[in-house]
Design brief:
Length: 446
Amino acid sequence: MRDAGRLAAAIEILKDFNARRVPLKTVLADWARGARYAGAKDRAWISGLCLDALRRRNSLAWMMGDDTPRALALAALHFRWGMALDEIEAHAAEEPHGPGALSAEEKARLGGGGGIHLLPDGEKGSLAPPHIAGDYPEWLAPHMIRVFGDDAMAEGAALAERADIGLRLNTLKGDAEKLFRALKPVKAEMIPVLTTTACISAPPANKKSAAITIIPAFNKGWVEVQDLGSQIAAAAAGEIKGAQVLDYCAGGGGKTLALSALMENTGQLYAYDKDARRLKPLYARAKRAGVRNLQVRSPAGGEGLDDLQGKMDVVYVDAPCTGAGTWRRHPDTKWRLTPAQLERRMAEQDAVLAEAARFVKPGGRLVYVTCSVFMEENEDRLLAFGKAHPEFSPVPALAAIAASGLLTEEGTRMLEPCVTPEGALRITPLRVHTDGFFVAALQRQA
């Protein structure tokens, strides 16, 4: 495909996204099925432009004076990708593939003639309101300000950047240094926060990501794709070698595998999820990773948890949430989120905390994690839980992570500013260059 056709396709996909309000990946897949002529490079270019348009939807619309898919796509090409105005003009006007010649207003806006020519960069005093410069929905402004105060705009802008590809070295398969050497083909770099973390820098938006899943190291189970924030959250389980551990909301098993590595295949690890379909990938992933201490308890097989009540040293709860911390990777979700959905997630979090607490033995710990930055899903939920369950008391999450043996000195320095007054952690891309996570640890009275 020529760039003119790619631009036109991106505009049509954004129109479809606005109309259907379904995940962007669904819209992209539907488009691709009807566009067999589009190759892998075409799809990467088109999806990259759509994602960048949604990452910065508010600020791009502000600069264009227009929030239509066409305006967003043109602005993303110029302001985010750096494509010259004359080149955009040529692509837009190209017949028969382009989306149509630029208007005088579009040329003025893209050329700076509209009076708004600087991208919001989080600096105080920006002409744009915080929700515009921070690129989050206006209805979320009180929630962002509540948690971040004057930094709401900068935190939102950081959540609108492209994300690196996080990697976890699987120490069940060998020494971390040896495993890292096997990542040379994908140009990975170590991240000096945990001893087992590495990453691949985010590729240009119009290029495909590194093909990590086809290299031998991945297929041998030496490495897993996992964001650094998720790895830090898993390490909050602490020292768990030989322990009885329940991963209560295991899903596809990313943190389950990290917990098994922490346990060094000792003790007993149980993985459970109310939605049995989410557990399906875990079986193959655990086999590839060399996990031997895992029992998957699936509702589909009638496998309950009653026999584990009051017996777990650690119950790990990666709770259902809005996913606000993952906006870098899934920018469409912030525009599909509604107040009603936030309320539903809060109710689900209350329920899952109460259910999971039953399995913690006296003296054991409950670890509560979300990939959301909002206090409504985090501190507020723990406050409500604490009132109903006074036998649980907060313990420092950073100390639990240190007890895992993975935290480096530099990692400690990086995470200390993320500690909340209650001893939990709120990790954000602005502070630690990860997805956004909240991590808290509670201990049950012995």
